[in-house]
Amino acid sequence: QVQLVESGGGLVQPGGSLRLSCATSEELFDFNSMGWYRQTPGKEREMVATIYRGGKTQFPDSVKGRFTISRDGARKKIFLQMNGLKPEDTAVYYCNAKIPSRQYWGQGTQVTVSS
């Protein structure tokens, strides 16, 4: 059973930074892609960062230039560095991993941006 475990969420002031981590039980390159999604009540889950097996990354315009995604294969982890945080970034952030036949999710970690 694939496990994804997020950590690093919390409360931060506007303009601040947070670094989320996602640890997996699998080799990172077993997945076609890994990434981060976020969700707020009443809204659909949205992708905020993806890193593909070959290293290409993808971000929506809402976080481009503020968020970066990276990975450490030896530690079987991916990271989401979030800078210049805004109140609208407040959400539960989920780690995601995809293979052709299915995708996997972590349990989520809360990020709250508030003064």
Provide an overview of this structure.
0% of the residues lie in helices and 52% in strands. It is mostly beta strands. A hairpin with a 4-residue loop joins strand 5 and strand 6.
Task: Work out the number of β strands.
Answer: 11
How widely separated are the two ends? 40 Å
Q: Ranges with pLDDT <50 over ≥5 residues?
A: none
Helix content: under 10%
Secondary structure class reads: mainly beta
Instruction: Assess the beta-strand content as a share of residues.
Output: over 45%
The largest pleated sheet is described as: 7 strands, mixed
Briefly summarize what is shown.
With 115 residues, this protein is mainly β.
What is the secondary structure topology, with strand pairs?
Layout: E1 4-7, E2 10-12, E3 18-24, E4 33-39, E5 46-52, E6 57-58, E7 67-72, E8 77-82, E9 91-99, E10 102-105, E11 109-113
Parallel strand pairs: 2-11
Antiparallel strand pairs: 1-3, 3-8, 4-5, 4-9, 5-6, 7-8, 9-10, 9-11
List keywords for this structure.
globular, seven-stranded mixed beta sheet, single chain, mainly beta, 11 strands, four-stranded antiparallel beta sheet, 115 residues
